[in-house]
Amino acid sequence: MEKLANFIDGKYVAPIKGQYIDNFEPATGKVYSLIPNSDEEDVQMAVNAAEKAFPIWSKMSTEERSAILVRLSEGIAARMDEFVQAESKDNGKPVSLAAHVDIPRAVSNFHFFATAITHFSSESHYMDGIGVNFTLRKPLGIVGCISPWNLPLYLFSWKIAPALAAGNCVIAKPSEITPYTAYLLGKVAKEAGMPDGVLNILHGLGGSVGDAIVKHPKIKAISFTGGTKTGEYIARTAAPMFKKLSLELGGKNPNIIFADCNFEEMLSTTLRSSFANQGQICLCGSRIFIERPIYEKFKEAFVNKVAATVVSYPSDPQAKLGAVVSEPHMEKILSYIELAKKEGGTILTGGVKEQLEGDYEKGYFLRPTVIEGLAFDCRTNQEEIFGPVVTLTPFDTEEEVLAMANSTQYGLSATIWTENLTRAHRMADEIQAGIVWVNCWLVRDLRTPFGGVKASGVGREGGLEALRFFTEPKNVLIKYY
Ligand code: NDP
Question: Are residues 138 and 160 part of one domain?
Fold first, then answer.
């Protein structure tokens, strides 16, 4: 069976203790590779390599660093099919999704930050009669990047690219559930001419290698995307060491549909915003609020489409949904469906596993599920399920829907469907979220700030925000009067 390796100091190396973890293929439920079960000794080895590399990388001209990152981006694009197949196999998502979303976006992430850094400028503040302040932006040193399993290379590169572009050395850990494309990345970085030790990729469990990254005193910042509970633990551990923290956490996003919306466009986008990637996107709109005059019309049209959605093995070109990422995650989603029933919900469609045959009979496939009749403040409507499950709730007024939308501990994103311009502005202003889409969903401009409020996180990724996070400002005042 294939054994993956850590990528440290420009080389693939086995974990020091020689221990491995099983890597499952979600579509078959079978183990198909082994990944290093790394720990603090492997982290130390990576820190040693990164310390050696930092003076080289941080002093390299911006143009040279940029050129290496452009080549890295092109290197992934040149191996598009290898990355697409690997991502789909490792995560369970349809091949078509990995081909259209995940891997192209990883290519764009590297390309975007490779070029963004060449436009990054700092501020100066003139003082009458005194002189001028200017603010230098220096890389932090060694930084840790920890990412989740839902959009593996997409979110991994979203952190690594700005960290590297800003001149930092990186110690990165993908989710142990989806390690494969991060594993492939080491080879591409090497071929792109990245100096040894600049990018180190470690595999293993959050509680051991992830924790060792968070606790290492020489790692100056942690950029983390994952669950709110893990984020809370990381904040508690890293804050006393005065590390910089960027935390992108969970969501329970409202999708608010007014009766005056463009119905057909809303309907097809709502199918995607509910179930893309098996509902395992932190931005999915899992709570759908519908203005009462179109509630029944929406319900009928939506449920018909959801019931007709093809759930199949990832390489099936007909598949709109693939497998969810793991057996424990599938069980968690099913337990929430049971909870919804206990809380008085009615399952309008789905609520069960999709049983495939042959090689896929033990895969983790679920029917997309629509539930109605739940109170807005019940657990099903307050807790993150992170699967193909949405709830429908009618509303009568803007005030009412705002109160329901803002009632959770989360505040990542929100979607609003209306043709009424002033209402769209009013709602966008009042909604508690870091990202608001009006009449669209998941349309991303990489220059914009990305992140959530409340328990959805701290700090912002994207564009200049990410470059600012990965640099330390140093103000210099030159007095010349
Ligand atoms: P987890 O929080 O379980 O894990 C995220 C990463 O952190 C994994 O690499 C994990 O490793 C690691 N980890 C776990 N425990 C620790 C620890 N003690 N110290 C350091 N690292 C640790 O999240 P999931 O992987 O389950 O991802 C799903 C979550 O991510 C959802 O809540 C989702 O909303 C959120 N998310 C947020 C996004 C955003 O931008 N706000 C975007 C995408 C997802 P391991 O896999 O070994 O446990």
Answer: yes
Are residues 103 and 237 both part of a single domain?
yes
Neighbours of 31 (CB within 10 A): 12
Is 328 a pocket residue for ligand 1 (Cβ < 6 Å)?
no
Residue 210 CB–ligand 1 contact under 6 Å: yes
Domain region containing 311: 254-446
314, 365: one domain = yes
Residue 361's pLDDT band (cuts 50, 70, 90): very high
Distance in Å, CA 148 to ligand 1 centroid: 4
The alpha carbon of 299 and the centre of ligand 1 are apart by a number of angstroms equal to 33
Ligand 1 in reach of 211 Cβ (< 6 A) = yes
Span 234-277, pLDDT tens digits: 999 999 999 999 999 999 999 999 999 999 999 999 999 999 99
Rounded CA-CA distance 280/21 in Å is 23
* DSSP H helical ranges for 324-472: 327-342, 379-382, 398-405, 421-430, 463-469
Catalytic site positions = 248, 282
Assess if residue 63 is contained within a domain: yes
230 CA → ligand 1 middle, Å:
7
pLDDT tens digit string along 68-114? 999 999 999 999 999 999 999 999 999 999 999 999 999 999 999 99
| Domains identified in the chain, total number | 2
Nearest alpha carbon, ligand 1 atom 12: 206
Please tell me the distance from the alpha carbon of residue 411 to that of residue 224, in angstroms, as a whole number. 17
Specify if 451 maps to a domain: no
Q: Decide whether any atom of ligand 1 lies within 6 Å of the 434 Cβ.
A: no
d(CA 135, CA 120) in angstroms, rounded, equals 12
Q: Does 26 contact ligand 1 (Cβ within 6 A)?
A: no
